[in-house]
Structures are given as C-alpha cells and as structure tokens.
Design brief:
Blueprint lengths: L2 E4 L16 H13 L4 E4 L13 H11 L4 E5 L2 H4 L2 H10 L6 E5 L5 H11 L2 E6 L2 H8 L9 E5 L5 H17 L6 E4 L5 H11 L2 E4 L16 H25 L1
Helix pairs in contact: 1-2, 1-9, 4-5, 6-7, 8-9
C-alpha cells in the first residue's frame, strides 16, 4: 500500500508552471516527491523537442537515479509515444539504463509483445487496465503471475460510473484468481475520490501532474510534491484510524 508519484505524463507544456519536462527537471522533481513521502516514481521521459520519447529513457533514468538512489522507478510504454509498433519495440530493445518497471496498457494491440520484450530485458511489468475488456484480455494471457502489479486506471469523469468500472475490473481479477497487488488511480475530477477508495481497499495509489493538478480542497497545487504530500496524509490518516480502532477493541 504505497503512494506512487506520476510526475508529468502526456500533459502539454502549459498544463502547470512546474511540469517537469527535461531529464534534470524530472530528477529534481522526483527527489522532492520522494521527500514528500512517495514510495516510487512513474515518469514519461521527453526528448529535446519536449515530446514524450522512449528513446529518452537512458538519459532520464540516469539523471533520476542520481537524484533518487535506491528508488523504484517506472516509465510508460504508451503506444502513442512513438506512434508506431516497430519504433516502440526498437526503442525498448535499445534501453541500457533500465527502469525497474514499465507500464503496459492492455487496451493497446501490441501489449502482449511489449510485455514479452520487457520480460526479456528483465524489466518489471505494471499492467494497465482501463476497461472491463482490458481485464478480460489480461486474465486470458499466459504468465499473468509474472507481472509486477495491476494498475486499475480509470479516466471516466462521472464518479459513480468510474467506481462501477473499477469494481467490475476488480471482480474479473478476483474471479480469475489473480493475486497481484493493485494500484488504483483516477484522473482530474476523480483523483481524490480514488485515493480514498484505494485507502479503504488497502490498495496502492498514485498522484501527480500526470493525473491532475488540484489538491483535495480544489486549489491548484504548487507542484508535484504538494500533491504527493496530500495523498500521503490521507493514507497515513487511514492507518492511524485503523490503529486507534484496534486499540479500542
């Protein structure tokens, strides 16, 4: 049960004044997030033109590891980044500064091949499930026991509908006997309700400018570290309440 910091994602340059876009900015931002209580990082490296790039992994990983030694670091393999199956595969195959894990979206046609490539390179796999269909696809794949974690990521903005999809995805996993740890997160309007839902289910969660820029009170956060600190406070508050309840019995 951890808080992961997702520091930039595919957000445009003008999304937030402190959106980290260079390797050094990501390293500095990552260190601040870890100091604020994040247990690990999820990063979308960018090339010299500011666009997401799987070819920028080595430079970014080296910078972030210098700033955050010993921290578990992951990256995205989103198909939109290179926008070409073969370019995506070639870029991953060329990685030398390996992340600890990489997220793979099961909604993408080439997801099984990307997962196989990551396994061969010794990179952990965080499986991204955004729909019930993604969940059914995942449980039908071989080697489901060899993934690092399940990422239930819901971008539906109507809260009750988003809750329903997350619940159905979890039910598919339970029925299939998938016992891997789960990280649940929302986006924009649903970020904080899903942080609370994750806490109640004893699941991990993630927060940061990739998913939204507001704090629980609706104000715009100063930076990623402020968002992380708010999520960590929610998680720690839940743990304290459980401890108090246990002591009272």
């Amino acid at each position: 049960m951890i808080v992961q910091a997702c520091i930039n994602g595919a957000r445009p340059v003008d999304f937030h004044p402190h959106l980290p876009l260079t390797a050094e900015a990501m390293a500095t931002d990552s260190a601040a997030c870890i100091a604020a209580g994040a247990a690990e990082l999820h990063i979308h490296p960018r090339g010299p033109d500011g666009r997401e790039s799987l070819n920028a992994i080595d430079e970014t990983m080296a910078a972030v590891r210098r700033a955050c030694p010993g921290t578990f670091i992951g990256v995205s393999t989103g198909a939109w980044i290179e926008n070409d199956v073969q370019r995506t595969r070639r870029a991953i195959d060329a990685w030398r500064q390996l992340p600890d894990y990489a997220s793979v979206n099961l909604s993408e046609p080439d997801a099984p091949a990307v997962m196989d490539l990551l396994r061969k390179k010794g990179v952990g796999i965080e499986v991204g499930l955004a729909t019930v269909g993604d969940a059914h696809r995942f449980v039908g794949l071989p080697d489901t026991d060899k993934v690092l974690r399940i990422l239930i990521e819901i971008d539906i903005q109507k809260l009750h509908a988003a809750y329903d999809v997350a619940k159905e995805i979890a039910a598919v996993l339970d029925t299939a006997g998938i016992g891997k740890s789960i990280l649940l997160h929302g986006a924009d309007e649903t970020v904080w309700p899903f942080v609370e839902r994750a806490r109640k289910r004893a699941w991990s969660t993630r927060v940061g400018l990739e998913d939204g820029k507001h704090l629980p009170d609706g104000t715009v956060a100063a930076d990623n570290a402020a968002i992380v600190a708010a999520a960590v406070a929610i998680f720690r508050g839940g743990i304290i309440k459980k401890q108090q309840a246990a002591m009272a019995t």
